[in-house]
Amino acid sequence: MSLLPFRRKSASSDTAVPVLDGILAGYSIEVMPRTAEKISDFRALLPKGTRVYIAHIDGTPIEDMVATAKRLAGEGFDVMPHFPARIIRDRATLADWIARYQGEADVHQALLLGGGVSTPHGDFDNSMQLIETGLFDRAGFTHLHVAGHPEGNRDIDPDGSDAMVMQALHWKQAFSNRTDARMAMATQFAFEAAPVIAWAERLRAEGITLPIHLGIAGPAKLQTLIRFAIACGVGPSLKVLQKRALDVTKLLLPYEPTEILSDLAAHRSSHPDSLIEQIHLFPLGGIKIAAQFAIDHGGPATLPALAQA
To answer: Following DSSP, what letter does each residue of 17-39 receive, concatenated?
Structure first.
């Protein structure tokens, strides 16, 4: 299943030169209402049709989320808001959110996840419970994405294993198999390709074939990335940043994800059946910086806003 196809490197390309366009074509990006407010026109930054996830942080009014979705949809983007289970109080609240998104922004895509709070605000504790309501199916949602955890998640598996995470993925795979929902995993960001590739290969071996939309942190100050990585529970690949921080010549330089993207592009070139389908950018250093990085490194270029209007 391919939601947004890649431009693949041709067989005649010079393999000695890192080629990133095959991995950044069709990328998605994440925003929040407060960060989106700082952008006057997304059409000047993102190619038309880019999938834009809207992160729903606890405490953000649903009105702000829907207004952001309406604006982005109006500018020509595929909008995918977060539905964090633990901050949705009950079935009626979920139905209300779905109705608002559809009625005001014509949204038919959702990222379903547990959410960043430890104690549920109401009836829901995980994304599977949201799916089981049947509300997304009745509302005609076409894409249901779920969270992926290449390096585990101690909120779900406190013992450091991934037993519960894998159990949940098998459930979601079974749901995908028996329905026509177009599903994929949007993952936490990582900084090293090898553990992610090994995780993807393990999933396939266990019968999980949901496409992976791999989270990658966009360019940012090293200190900013380390802070976010620790707060978000990034696993062993955090050592890539920690090693860089020990080099005083690099400490003040912005981090760019060129190495991990180059490694992923090489892997996809040699493994065209990889579950790693596309890249999901976390613009931790700013939306403009992340969007320009994508354009500079082979992602699809945007058009002037007036040309897209």
So the answer is: S---HHHHTT-EEEE-HHHHTT-
